[in-house]
Design goal:
Layout: E1 10-14, H1 19-30, E2 34-39, E3 47-50, E4 53-58, H2 61-68, E5 72-75, H3 79-92, E6 96-99, H4 106-119, E7 122-124, E8 130-133, E9 137-140, E10 149-156, H5 159-168, E11 174-179, H6 190-199, E12 205-211, H7 216-227, E13 232-237, H8 261-270, E14 274-276, H9 279-296
Parallel strand pairs: 1-2, 1-5, 2-4, 5-6, 6-7, 10-11, 10-12, 12-13, 13-14
Antiparallel strand pairs: 3-4, 8-9, 8-11
């Protein structure tokens, strides 16, 4: 019941010894994440105590993989060093790099996402809350106590809307929730997650959260119409955003009719996706769709 992240995942934290890294490593451990080490060349050989768990600090991602078998890294380094950190992880052969860092220059994001793809490393982010498979593992900053394991998959550009939908649908629960980030360039797209959820036998329905700017949601709609047989429910943030003004995320800017919330809603609905006008209405659409699925299934 998961995509990308399971209870078997072994997680490194690049930037673990910094303030944000320390805070969220503690939260990840409390959620049951198997954090096997931090990475800081200047503090290699030390250990950091998190309540009842001592986590070693390693000199490099390559050392972390060699000594712990790590297959996931969560990146909490400052923007100026994020490109080098992600490329180091890709060079070491990490399978998944979750880049939490906000404010990374776009040309750096282009460089490391392209580099990582060539090396076979999946990037989630940057400027994202990470991903969580409730009850198994949490890689990033998503609160772990607002939902439970279940059969809904969620992919979202927005961190806060991820949390809200998780809470609204807490009685049903989620297989995996992926916050892909709201920057103009991200390593994992809506389509990537839709494909993974389509292939996950324990994901019954997918929630897709988008926002104004770009054409990611329109491309996702085209993919859904051709490849996704599971029900999808959507929500688009930004119906009241003024034209030409960046709203929150660096990628959320509307130019003319391109990238508007209405255009995205229409594209999704044309692909058979039910789209809510508010997060609460979206949650109700999910419940309605699940009920329809149950009544339509014999026995």
């Amino acid at each position: 019941m998961a995509i990308y992240l399971t209870k078997e995942s072994k997680v490194l934290v690049q930037g673990m010894t910094g303030g944000e890294g320390m805070k969220h490593t503690r939260r990840m451990l409390a959620a049951g994440t198997n954090v096997v080490g931090g990475v800081n060349p200047r503090k290699a050989g030390q250990t950091v105590d998190f309540d009842d768990r001592a986590v070693p600090v390693l000199g490099s991602v390559a050392e972390g993989i060699e000594t712990t078998g790590a297959d996931v890294t969560v990146v909490f380094v400052p923007p100026a060093f994020a490109r080098a950190a992600v490329m180091e992880a890709a060079d070491a052969g990490i399978g998944l790099a979750v880049v939490i860092t906000e404010g990374i220059p776009v040309h750096d994001s282009v460089a490391f996402t392209t580099y990582a793809q060539a090396k076979g490393t999946r990037i989630v982010g940057p400027n994202c809350p990470g991903l969580i498979t409730p009850g198994q593992s949490n890689a990033g900053i998503i609160p772990a106590d607002i939902t439970k394991p279940g059969r809904i998959g969620l992919v979202s550009k927005s961190g806060t809307l991820t949390y809200q939908l998780m809470y609204e649908l807490r009685d049903i629960g989620f297989s995996t929730c992926v916050g892909i980030g709201g920057d103009p360039v991200v390593g994992t797209s809506h389509i990537d997650c839709l494909a993974a959820f389509q292939d996950d036998p324990d994901t019954e329905l997918v929630v897709l959260i988008g926002e104004i700017g770009g054409d990611a949601e329109e491309r996702a709609a085209a993919y859904i119409s051709e490849h996704v047989t599971k029900p999808v429910v959507g929500y688009i943030a930004g119906f009241t955003a003024p034209e030409g003004k960046t709203m929150g995320h660096a990628g959320a800017i509307v130019s003319g009719s391109s990238g508007t919330a209405r255009a995205k809603k229409e594209a999704l609905e044309a692909a058979g996706v039910r789209v809510g006008s508010t997060p609460t209405e979206t949650a109700k659409l999910v419940l309605d769709r699940l009920e329809e699925q149950r009544t339509a299934t014999p026995g």
